[in-house]
Amino acid sequence: MRPLSSLIIASTAMLFIGSALSRPAVPDPRRIGAIVDTTTPASQDPQFVALEQRIQQDLRQSLQGDAATLARPQLEKARQTSTQADTKWLAASGYNFAVKQNQQAGIALLEDFTRLSPAVQAISLATVTGINRDATQGQRRQALVDAEGQNYLFFLADALGPRLGNAFLDAYEKGEINKAAALIKTSEISTSAAKDHFNYDRPFLRPGNQIHLVPDDSVVKDGHPYTATAGAFPSGHTNTGYTDALLLAEMLPERFTPLVDRGARYGYSRIVLGVHYPLDIIGSRIVAERNVAHFLNDAQYRALFEQAKSQLRGALEKECGATLADCAQSDAGTDPYRNRALTAFYRYTMSYGLPAEKTAARPVSVPAGAEVLLEAPLPGLSAAQRRALMAKTALGDGYPLSGGNGEQNFWQRLNLHDAVVSASLGR
Asked: Is the pTM here over 0.90, yes or no?
């Protein structure tokens, strides 16, 4: 018998055959699930599993703090310590993150959400139902750790490989990268205004939904089903995960693609838990990419970024006892984020198999300054070449949230993974 979730996906898709929508060639969900499993504690590699166990242990200790045990109420107030993040240094800079203005810019980028057809929304619900119901135990445990670690940087370590990942955790706990930790977390522009604006119910709140709420057996370990509050669109956790991963990737271009993939993987965790739709994840990727580019093009922010980057790289080399080029090296056998299979996963997360409208394809219009995102991983290319590469490797036109022109169309289509891989292969 086919899983119920598979039947839901199939029947929903059949409802819209013959409509003005076309579905992309989507990999077998079992293949995507197998790729995702390699990035969880279900991995077959002992070194990666040991790193995942350390991440979970370090997170639980930070959440617990000085308390005798870890209890659920502690999750809400847990934040990076003054050792982990030098917030005084950042405050002394006087930098204005212009939160409200950037929130409004994000809302403007996402306005195509209000024009989505019932067909696309139904397929989005069917997709989250399928991923959530068919998720493995390893995926669920990883998703719980990702969720409860939102206010920390622990989750980024597994995208750095076993050697550099452990060095990162050592440096983080000792406060040796406290400028980077403060800047990265403060650069997350809250999605609360957008959630209020779009006011979209989460999938587990839909009447008649078949979402499986995942009991916590990994963080607090009290069996409490994981849920979430406020609106679904866009995803706040994914905004956090993608912003953090992309900023660290800009500081550590030796691991640029693995870290970008980790941002996408963090978003996938939200679907595993059944608290977000694919549309929420895509929306947050769009906003996070735009925000990081915006900040990196600001001279005052860039000065802070360079200070944090210098501290980070020096600390990691100290903890590794080797150059970053050497410490960042790994192979696909011990590091799933070096496996070429992640390319298929990242491409899947660009659209999650949602259908595109059958419209005349528009050329990619790269907004001024967007090319800054490829400056660190591709220093040998000119700004014009980086812009051309972004256009060349972009997702096809017409997929959900790409409506409109200019930036609204561009950020949804930007594929940073393929841009960097394509350049490295000389394509």
From this structure: yes
The residue assigned the tokens 């591709």 is 378
> Two tokens at 234?
């866009």
Task: Give the least confident one: 78-82, 128-132, 404-408.
Answer: 404-408
Residue 22 bridge partners (DSSP): 356
Domain span holding position 81: 4-17+27-335
Residue 132 inside a domain? The answer is: yes
Inter-residue contact 289 to 246 (CB < 8 Å): yes
Number of domains in the chain: 1
Of 379, 402, 330, 317, the residue nearest 120 (C-alpha): 402
Question: CB count, 10 Å around CB of 16?
Answer: 17
Q: Which residues of 136-155 are buried (b: 16+ CB within 10 A; e: fewer)?
A: eebbbbbbbbbbbbbbbbbb
Please, how many CA atoms are within 13 Å of residue 259, restricted to the half-sphere of its CB? 24
pLDDT tens column, 103-154: 999 999 999 999 999 999 999 999 999 999 999 999 999 999 999 999 999 9
Does 44 fall in a domain?
Answer: yes
Rounded distance between C-alpha atoms, residue 353 and residue 24, angstroms? 6
Range 244-270 burial, b when 16+ CB lie within 10 A, else e = bbbbbbbbbbbbbbbbbbbbbbbbbbb
Q: Are the C-beta atoms of 171 and 319 separated by less than 8 Å?
A: yes
Is there a domain that residue 378 lies in? Answer: no
142 touches 269 (CB < 8 A): yes
- Sign, CA dihedral 327-333-334-340, equals positive
Calpha distance 55→52 (Å, rounded)? 5
Residue-level pLDDT at 24: 53
